[in-house]
Specification:
341 residues, alpha/beta, 10-stranded parallel sheet, 16% helix
Length: 341
């Protein structure tokens, strides 16, 4: 795809300074850009690159003044970074704007789908599946019986969505996501063998939820595992049965959340955090990376450590922990002194 400077300026509400017919077909960093590239300059630290870049078009701030001759065509905007982000989003939409049904695939006779639907090859749609408008399902996906998928949702290759799952509008599920597998429910008997507890609930994912590659969300034993509106999940996260995650909470990679734990709104949870089951975590809580959560957390707390405790107390304690060898040496010296004295 090629775009001219005048077309780009119209999309980002900018003004062309240079050749309005200049064409680009790729995006690049200003220091790496070549002819045919579009780049941007927002950080003054990179100003020197404007004179050496080979980019055909560069987005700059409205009041940017160059002191030497430049070869790149400028598009002047209020906020170059924001404008470039808008272009990235636009480019992504154009790139992903597929439609039609590829072959081979399987679509149950009772499945329904809306307008401008894209279904990639080798994909399975089960009985009574309901898919909204402008939904894109890439190749090699499995959509089980009675699944509901809302409008404008994007499901990348290799996603598995088990039966009874409900997914809202404007969600994004990246490759390898598994939604609705059985929760980890087993009962040991007197001999130590385990019998499976049937998992007959489902998963509900509300609107505008992003789920990173390889993340797994288990179906509830009874009722629903619920991911509320606006939640952002990174790659390789495990969410167990009957967990509920509140609106606009963001969770980083490799975090594990055990069954029946409730997490509040607007929380920030770092990578590799472990959260025990049947806990309640309040709203606006921040959990630092690699923390282990074994008790309830109140609203607005910031915690760290394993087991976790107050962030400020953790930092104070860590200072003492680092100094333990010196402290022990001093204690040993004092002990010798008073023993010999």
């Amino acid at each position: 795809m090629k775009f001219k400077a005048k077309q780009i300026a119209e999309i980002i509400e900018g003004t062309v300074d240079g050749n309005p017919e200049a064409e680009v077909f790729e995006l690049a960093k200003i220091e790496d850009a070549t002819e045919g590239s579009l780049t941007f300059l927002s950080n003054p630290k990179y100003n020197s690159y404007i004179y050496s870049t080979s980019a055909s078009i560069t987005i700059v701030k409205e009041d940017f003044h160059f002191e030497e001759k430049i070869s790149t065509t400028l598009i002047r905007v209020k906020d170059p970074y924001k404008a470039f982000s808008t272009l990235l989003e636009y480019y992504n939409q154009v790139k992903l704007n597929k439609s039609g049904i590829e072959e081979p695939n399987f679509i149950s006779d009772s499945a329904e789908y809306g307008e401008n639907f894209y279904l990639g090859a080798f994909t399975y749609l089960g009985k009574n599946v309901k898919v909204g408008n402008d939904v894109k399902i890439y190749p090699n996906c499995y959509i089980g019986d009675n699944v509901v998928i809302g409008d404008n949702t994007l499901i990348f290759a290799g996603v598995k969505i088990y039966s009874e799952t409900v997914i809202g509008n404007e969600c994004v599920l990246h490759g390898g996501v598994v939604i609705g597998a059985d929760g980890f429910g087993f009962n040991p008997d007197d001999s130590g063998e385990y019998s499976k507890v049937p998992q007959i609930g489902n998963v509900i994912i509300e609107d505008k939820v992003d789920i990173g590659a390889g993340t797994t969300i288990d179906r509830a034993t009874l009722g629903s595992t619920i991911i509320r509106k606006g939640v952002k999940l990174d790659n390789q996260i495990q969410i167990a049965h009957n967990v509920e995650i509140g609106e606009n909470t963001a969770i980083a990679a490799q975090t594990g959340i055990a069954g029946s734990t409730k997490i509040g709104k607007n929380c920030l949870i770092g990578g590799q955090v472990g959260i025990a089951g049947h806990l309640t975590i309040g709203d606006r809580v921040k959990v630092q990376a690699q923390s282990g959560i074994g008790k309830n957390i109140q609203d607005d707390e910031i915690v760290q450590g394993s087991p976790s405790f107050g962030y400020g107390d953790f930092n104070k304690s860590y200072v003492h922990f680092k100094n333990l060898p010196k402290i022990i040496d001093r204690l040993n010296q004092l002990e010798k002194k008073y023993k010999n004295g």
